[in-house]
Write a structure and sequence with these properties.
- This protein has 94 residues and is mostly helical.
- Helix content is 52%, strand content 9%.
- It contains six helices and four strands, in the order βαββαααβαα.
- The strands form two sheets. A two-stranded parallel sheet has the order 1-2.
- Helix 1 links the parallel strand 1 and strand 2.
- It is globular.
């Protein structure tokens, strides 16, 4: 299983370690809110707005998305589209 480093030390990592497979970490995805704002036509303005409503200190990460999705206040498919922004425009080198 390959996890994003934003899940280190979280319940996600703990659950993954209970599985009968090795854990690996990829470089990680992070997206600034400035970069998110630059692409409203990619999936739609409503998903940019959703991302902006859950950002932490100007960033989106998989962990931030997961925490927000777990609250159950939005359609899970909406978070999937915010994830598309993170995966497409996010930076692995920061």
């Amino acid at each position: 299983m390959v996890l994003d480093p934003s899940h280190r030390g979280t319940p996600i990592e703990q659950a993954a370690r209970r599985l009968p497979c090795p854990i690996e970490w990829h470089a990680g995805f992070r997206l600034t809110t400035d970069d998110l704002r630059r692409h409203p036509d990619y999936r739609g303005r409503q998903y940019v707005d959703l991302g902006l409503s859950i950002e932490v200190d100007g960033w989106l990460t998989p962990s931030i998305l997961g925490d927000a999705a777990a609250l159950g206040q939005h359609d899970p498919q909406a978070f999937k589209r915010v994830w598309h922004y993170l995966a497409r425009f996010g930076d692995e080198s920061r």
